[in-house]
Amino acid sequence: MAKQRIYIAGHKGMVGSAIFRQLKDQEVEIITRNRTELDLLNQQDVQNFFKNEKIDQVYLAAAKVGGIHANNTYPADFIYQNLTIQNNVIHSAFLNGVKKLLFLGSSCIYPKYANQPMKEEELLNGKLEPTNEPYAIAKISGIKMCENYNRQYGKSHGIEFRSIMPTNLYGPGDNYHPENSHVIPGLIYRFHEAKINNLESVTIWGTGIPRREFLYVDDLAEASVYLMNLDKKTYVSKLSSLSNHINVGSGKELNIRELAETIKEVINFKGTINFDASKPDGSPRKLLDSEKISKLGFKPKIGLKEGIIKTYKDYLKVYKNF
Ligand SMILES: NC(=O)c1ccc[n+]([C@@H]2O[C@H](COP(=O)([O-])OP(=O)(O)OC[C@H]3O[C@@H](n4cnc5c(N)ncnc54)[C@H](OP(=O)(O)O)[C@@H]3O)[C@@H](O)[C@H]2O)c1
Q1: Ligand 1 atom closest to Cα of 16?
Q2: Closest CA to 108 of 163, 31, 167
Q3: CB 3.0–4.6 Å: which of 4, 236, 261, 279 could bond 205 by disulfide?
Q4: Dihedral-angle region of residue 65 (phi above 0 means left; psi in -120 to 50 means alpha; beta otherwise)
């Protein structure tokens, strides 16, 4: 039998490269294109690519991604680029015979005041967090694209387009930019800088009290491949009617102070940590309910400290090239 031809969109990103690591030793043919070879914002080029490549499965991990600062500064880019990339890929995949597609979303699709832990059913139950609303609206549209393509074409064309909603991710390939990064890579950068410059302390925004959940990116990649390969009957057995997205988190929460102390220890920074309580805290708690994926048989393997040790090793490699 011919090998499955699997396209990873965004294979150079943190998530896409972890999915690549997950699939590279399997009996499949992996297809990739970097942005210069294929700009996913260009509809005609995306259509030509799918027409020529005869793809069987797609992991859609290409997106415009960033932290609060980037979302606040470039809201138009976040909504336009994410909608365009996913519309181009999902529709062209459908037109060209792709049967299975996994769309990568994010926990920010859930309302700002969603019940915690956030179940999949919280989607569209309330107003979004305004800062990342443009990004979240695009991601919700991606979930709805997958759901409605299944609804209209699932039986006639045998397609299964699924969506996975990860909690905060971290790991190799993360973005360590001092302003545009997420919390773990941002803290790794700051503690490392403080260590090598012999600073006495590091000051962190907010009170340190908000609680957050984190998942190592290779666990997410394993969950993605697991969900993609589940048979339809098993997959839908855990879903509400028509709804098609599944959460994946570690199920373990900790506060920002505990996180900072773990990173400080891994980096071996000897100074103190201060909290600037005059700066905003964000939501008090953001935890995904990952019961559905757990019942489907997937459990993450890499604990937070182990994951931070691996990530710091990656940072040191990147750091040499700064
Ligand atoms: N990071 C997280 O904490 C997190 C959490 C939950 C969900 N997710 C989801 O996971 C997905 C991937 O995130 P990530 O963290 O891996 O982001 P990332 O590291 O920024 O990777 C995104 C990838 O998409 C590519 N890309 C963007 N625009 C493109 C275009 N127009 N044409 C071709 N390629 C394009 C980028 O290419 P370049 O290398 O050329 O820029 C990059 O390789 C996103 O959908 C995100 O919502 C991430």
Answers
A1: 16
A2: 167
A3: 279
A4: beta
Rounded Cα gap, residues 103 and 124, in angstroms: 18
List own/partner pairs for 152-159 with CB under 8 A and 24 or more apart: 153/94, 157/94, 157/99, 158/99, 159/94, 159/98, 159/99, 159/100, 159/101
Our answer to whether residue 226 is catalytic in this structure is no
Contact 31, 7 (CB under 8 A): yes
* Alpha-helix runs per DSSP H in the chain: 14-23, 43-53, 68-73, 75-95, 133-157, 183-196, 217-229, 232-237, 256-267, 291-295, 304-319
Longest dimension (CA), the chain: 65
- What the block records as the tokens of 152 is 């209209």
φ/ψ of 209, rounded to 5, equals -85, -30
Full strand arrangement of the beta sheet holding 57-60: 28-31, 4-9, 57-60, 100-104, 160-166, 245-248
**Mean per-residue pLDDT pooled into runs of 10, the chain (322 residues):** 94 98 96 98 98 98 88 94 98 98 96 95 95 95 97 96 97 85 92 96 94 97 97 87 88 97 97 93 90 96 98 89 60
Pocket of ligand 1 (CB under 6 A): 10, 12-16, 35, 39-41, 61-65, 85, 104, 106, 166, 168-169, 182
How far does the centroid of ligand 1 lie from the alpha carbon of residue 9, in Å? 9
Residue of 21, 41, 65 to mutate, ligand 1, most atoms within 8 A of C-beta: 65
Q: How many whole angstroms from 62 Cα to the centroid of ligand 1?
A: 4
Is 13 in contact with 61 (CB distance < 8 Å)? yes
For residue 84, give the ligand 1 atom closest to its CA. Answer: 31
Which has the closest alpha carbon to 40: 71, 61, 16?
61
Both tokens assigned to 135: 């990004």
- Give the SS3 label for residue 299: coil
What pLDDT score does 236 carry?
A: 87
